[in-house]
Amino acid sequence: MYTTRYLGSDNYGILSFSIAFASIMIFLADLGMGSVIIRDIARDKCLTTKYFENVVLIKIVLAVITLVTTAAVGYVFNYQSQTMHVVYVITLSLILTSFSGIISSIIQAFEEMEYLSLGSVIYNITMLLCALLAIYFGSDVLGFALVYLISSIILMGYWAIVALRRIPLPRWDLDLAFWKYLITESVPFGLSSVFVRIYYYIDTLMISLIILNPNEIMGWYNAAYRLVLILAFIPTTFLGSLYPIMSSNYVTSEKYIRFMFERSFKYLMAVAIPLGVGTTVLADRIILFIYGADFSQSTIALQILVWSEVIIFLNFVFGNLLNSINRQIVVTKQTMLAATLNIALNLVLIPKYSYIGASVATVSTELFAFFFLLYFVSRGGYSLHKSMIMSFIKILCASLIMYLFLEIFYWIYLLPLILLASVIYFVVVYLLGILDKEDIHLMRQLSNRIHAQKENKDG
Fold first, then answer.
1. At residue 221, what are phi and psi to the nearest 5 degrees?
2. How far is CA 123 from CA 126, 158, 320, 335, in A?
3. Which of 182, 300, 338, 448 is the most core-located residue (most Cβ within 10 A)?
4. What's the pLDDT tens digit per position in 212-263?
5. Whole-structure pTM value
6. Residues 204, 15: contact at Cβ < 8 Å?
7. How far apart (Å, rounded) are the C-alpha atoms in residues 242 and 25?
8. Residues 6+ positions from 167 with CB-CB distance below 8 Å
């Protein structure tokens, strides 16, 4: 919020472009190894040291390749030197974050989620403090890129401390045959990741290439997009905690996996739909409150893009299931097709409708991904139970009541209005019986599991 207000739409457009460019290129530094680490170590903790030492060595090689490739692509497209300096700094920060991801993936496989939560808090507090310092000292856009780099360095330091405490010291035994296994298993995850990054970020790159004087427009578009992407922490955190559990149960209990899949879908649907409704109604006030009047053009983009996030919540559930049962190739195919569709839609819509066309392309792409994943999940024996339709209808009714409240009391101050609307929605959810006995039983199980893990560690 502070960064966007300070930089203005033009300089924020440069920073947004650099983040988009670097976020696509960073695929080369990871190849999706984090998902393989979580899946395999969740099944056999004895693999921890072997994975840690080999993945670190692989990523050193990949980091060099990433930096060289980034410079080459920037040269080919002849981007301005100021922009490329920002890109290099952001790329370096993402490479460091990739190394931190090795340790966080291992810790996630151990199901010790408190370390991930603390790491997230440390990173975001550092980002905030550094951004405020950059504003205080009157930094330019390159100074704000350094905020990302400094935050990544501090995050890496935190994970290094965690590694010393929780991971056995590596022997650094080079195992090229194991490298082959890691890369082969990781590539489907990595391709999924790069295609996801493409249809998250390619619209910004295409705006930069298609629109004349694109920086301001990229600023408007990404101001809205950043708000939408922030919401992704909800399914990412929730499903991230379930992924190692579902992966380990794939070997022992297919029935439990099906149960967790259906419940995850219902819970995230119950959160996503009211988020979409509320954001659509309050978009202009949210933009004014967070970014100020200079970003009023971002309102319509936010009203459209929030529905892409609603669909993403549900797509994440499908992806989490498929990755847990070793069907990541389906996710790879889906992301490849979705990325291709997104590029095609952007080529058609951006020249005529600018950033609004890019917003529509994003929602359309996610809708295609939803039906694609739903088809393959159902064909694989994990079709959603008919009761999900009734849950969907009840959630829509609760969201409609919340919508009417927001329209009637639109004049109330924004934050109290959001709080009251949330309370009303969840009260209606309770009254309609959307949460049944099985849901309450599952919550108790998860609570008991967390409590038992804490007692074991304390012991």
1. -65, -45
2. 5, 9, 25, 29
3. 338
4. 778 889 999 999 998 998 888 888 888 877 777 777 666 566 777 887 888 8
5. 0.77
6. no
7. 29
8. 48, 49, 52, 103, 106
